[in-house]
Design a protein that fits this description.
Elements lengths: L10 E5 L3 H7 L4 H21 L4 E5 L3 H6 L2 H19 L2 H5 L2 E6 L2 H4 L2 H14 L5 E6 L4 H15 L8 H7 L10 E4 L19 E4 L9 H13 L7
Helix pairs in contact: 1-2, 2-4, 4-7
Length: about 240
């Protein structure tokens, strides 16, 4: 089946689970798993953008990942972010596909200045790109997003205002993103975490891959996209 014949998801989410377990199985340090995951992320994102996915979102880390993991692992993870976001600045697929890069979550309060400088550079470079979207969820948790949204609505609207779906969506961190069509989670553990994008995934198709993230390569992603194409979405009908 050629890519032109596939029914592509407009918004693809990848939850890259299993980096640390992959490293442990090979007798490596946790950050070696994160490094392998970052290399794989670069390949998967390029593949998705070049194969007609309009919006791609990667969950890079939850708030707990940043706050609760051992200091050495946290430092290594943040360094890996910095290295690979700098590489993304010169990734030809970003410019060729005119992909606007966004970062959502509490990263501005949790990340060091050197990393934030790289992130700001990516945002600035791609701010006028409008054909595709590439989003990184960093220090992000869905339950935190929903509580933040409720507080925003509470502060903005007077008592007695009818809170509509439109108002809620406009108040989310993810207000600029379309609904999620297809959510892929790697790692062999079929579950959701921390209410991830709970509003935007309400009608998403789910795919749970057995492979830990460093082993979920572009061939595995291609196969998952074929499966999505063969599914029928009913939206409650």
């Amino acid at each position: 089946m050629t890519k032109e014949k596939l029914n592509r998801p407009k918004h693809l989410v990848i939850i890259p689970d299993g980096n640390r377990r992959w490293a442990k199985a090979l007798g490596l340090k946790p950050w070696d798993g994160h490094e392998a995951g970052a290399k794989n992320t670069e390949k998967l994102l390029t593949y998705a953008l070049e194969n007609n996915i309009e919006c791609v979102t990667i969950w890079g880390s939850s708030i707990d990942n940043i706050k609760k993991r051992p200091l050495m692992e946290k430092r290594a993870l943040l360094k890996i972010y910095e290295v690979y976001f700098k590489k993304l600045l010169t990734n030809p697929a970003i410019e060729a596909e005119q992909a606007k890069v966004s970062f959502l979550g509490r990263w501005e309060t949790q990340f060091p200045n050197s990393l934030k400088t790289t992130i700001y550079a990516l945002i600035e470079k791609t701010k006028n790109y409008d054909k595709k979207m590439l989003n990184f969820m960093l220090a992000y948790s869905g339950d935190d997003e929903m509580l933040d949204t409720i507080n925003r609505i509470h502060d903005k609207y007077k008592k007695g205002t009818e809170i509509t779906a439109k108002i809620l969506k406009e108040s989310l961190m993810t207000s600029q993103l379309p609904p999620v069509d297809y959510m892929i989670r790697t790692g062999g553990d079929a579950h959701l975490s921390a209410g991830f994008m709970m509003w935007d995934t309400a009608n998403a198709q789910l795919f749970f891959a057995d492979e830990k993230f460093p082993d979920f390569d572009t061939k595995k992603l291609a196969a998952a996209l074929v499966e999505y194409s063969n599914r029928q979405r009913r939206f409650g009908k």
